[in-house]
Amino acid sequence: MDVRNCKGCGKLFNYMSGAQLCPECRAKLEKKFSSVKDYIGEHPQASISQVAEDMDVSVKQIKQWVKEERLILSEASLDGVLCEHCGRPITSGRFCDKCKAAMANNLRSALNRPRPMQQRSGGERDEGDKMRFLR
Question: What's the pTM value of the predicted model, to 2 decimals?
Fold first, then answer.
């Protein structure tokens, strides 16, 4: 059992995973998230700082929801949400579409690259070595 202090209220609780919040503070945060999401839907042009001020939530928390892809911002409301790789403004997540595509392409290339066969100390290769790498 992992008992911790809640980052929100300081109360002890049985920690499972995720944010270090007790069930009550987690429920309050989810309710706040729902309100912020509704507000952004009604005011798509509002900046993050305006949303934070109007909804009494921190800019940091809003950016966290954006990184988690729980919130999607309009192009007009981007102020400080940047791709972690290239620094371009983004509407949701951690990376822009261009960087995501490049990362996926690099991963695909790495997975498709043939692996070199191991050599024995005498420089000989045998069929057993070939089979080991085909699995």
Answer: 0.70
